[in-house]
Structures are given as structure tokens and as C-alpha cells.
Amino acid sequence: DIQMTQSPSSVSASVGDRVTITCRASQDISIWLAWYHHKPGKAPKLLIYAASKLQTGVPSRFSGSGSGTDFTLTINNLQPEDFGTYYCQQANSFPAIIFGPGTKVDFK
Amino acid sequence: QLQLQESGPGLVKASETLSLTCTVSGGSINSNNYYWGWIRQPPGKGLEWIGNINYGGTTYYNPSLTGRATISVDPSKNQFSLKMTSVAATDTAVYYCARRWSPQNRAYFDSWGQGILVTVSS
User: Which residues of chain B have a pLDDT value below 50?
Assistant: First the structure.
């Protein structure tokens, strides 16, 4: 089975900062990776799919990159509504859907 | 705008069956383009995929649940449901329903419900 890891597990940042989160797959998943944002009590939100494609309606300060086993989510000019937990999800091994453990972004 | 809403008991006794329903509004569950899924998040932990179903009843499940989960669909009510048997304290979680979207034949969840907390009591 594919295992997903994320680093860091948590990061403290300020409004306006650039935040970078890394996701690593235990085997090659090509570009088949998504990123989600989740705030407590809210529905998770799909941000990026196929490693770098921005979902409709997602601000351009979010970007994704990577292929193979290593992927990055970058948030430029962090906004107050961006705090919460970010999860990666592999979409290579159909039909299994596997999420990473999450990275919590909170106020410095 | 598509909306999904989970409903069901918030408290289930250990060894009994958890039953949840997801009502879809603002769109039809009768689509070849989508599957409909359940995901859960135990307290303090990450997201775990439970399974998916399409309007025709084709299902896929997370093998780690060892056959305890069953997902069904009722297109006439625009609903799909989850049953999980022999629950234990480890099944305590927020349960989300979501729409599975498959661009380029890959699976992502592009619309989610708010989630419902289910606590398993002893």
C-alpha cells in the first residue's frame, strides 16, 4: 500500500508570510496528488488536484508542484482564512483513496 | 450550488450498527460523472476514506475496515447511506459525506458535507 507523509506536522506563521508544506509518497504516484484545506467544524475544501491544477474558485496565492514521490503546496501572502489543517491525498492507486496525516498552520 | 448534509444518530453503543445518511441538494445523484463517498476523522487524527458508491450501486471500500462498512444509494431521494457494523470506540469520529470527482480517471473529493460527530459509547 502507498503511504503518505507530510512535513512539517505543524507550522506557525503570520499574515503575509509564505508557507511551504511537503507531501511525500512511499512510491511513485506521478502527478496524481491533491491538496485540501480543512478548518475545524467546516467542510474540507479541495484546493489543488493533479499536483498543480488549481480548483475553480481557489485563490491564486495557492500553488502546487511536484511529481513522482515529492510534492509541495505553497501559500503566498498567507491570509487569516488560510489557517487550519492541510492534507494531501494520493489519487494514483484507484480505487484506494489515501490521505496524508495533515499539516496544521496556525498563528505565530 | 451542490450541498451535502449528513444525518443520523450522534451516539451509538459499542457492538451495534452505525447508520448515517447523506442528502444531496442542488444537484442530482444520478450522474455517470460522479461517485459519492464517506470519509471520517477520529478525534485528533487525520482523514480516513471509508468508501464510494455511484448511482447504479457500484461500490468501493477501504480494505482496512474488514467488511464492516456498507454504502447504499437511493436515487429517488437523492441520498446515499453508510452502515457500519460492530462498532467500537475506535469508530468514534466526525463522518463526512462527499462527492468524488474523477478528472482524467483519478479520484478527488470536490464537495463535502459539514460532517457529523458520531460517538461510540460502551
Answer: none
Alpha-carbon distance values, A79 to A9, A17, A107 (Å): 20, 8, 11
Rounded Cα distance, A107 and A80, in Å: 9
CA distance B116 to chain A (A): 9
* Mean pLDDT across chain B: 95
Asked if the Cβ–Cβ distance from A89 to B110 is below 8 Å, we say: no
What residues of chain A lie within 8 A of the CB of B47, using their CB? 36, 38, 44, 87, 89, 99, 102
SS3 state at A78: coil
The residue written with cell numbers 470506540 in the block is B89
CA nearest neighbour of B113 among B89, B90, B88, B96: B96
In angstroms, what separates the C-alpha of B121 from chain A's closest C-alpha?
22
Q: Which residue has the cell 462527492?
A: B99
Banded pLDDT at A66 (limits 50, 70, 90):
very high
Question: Of the candidates A55, A51, A18, A11, which has an alpha carbon nearest to the alpha carbon of residue B112?
Answer: A55
Q: Does the beta carbon of A15 lie under 8 angstroms from any beta carbon of chain B?
A: no
Give the pLDDT score at B34.
92
A36/B contact by beta carbon, under 8 A: yes
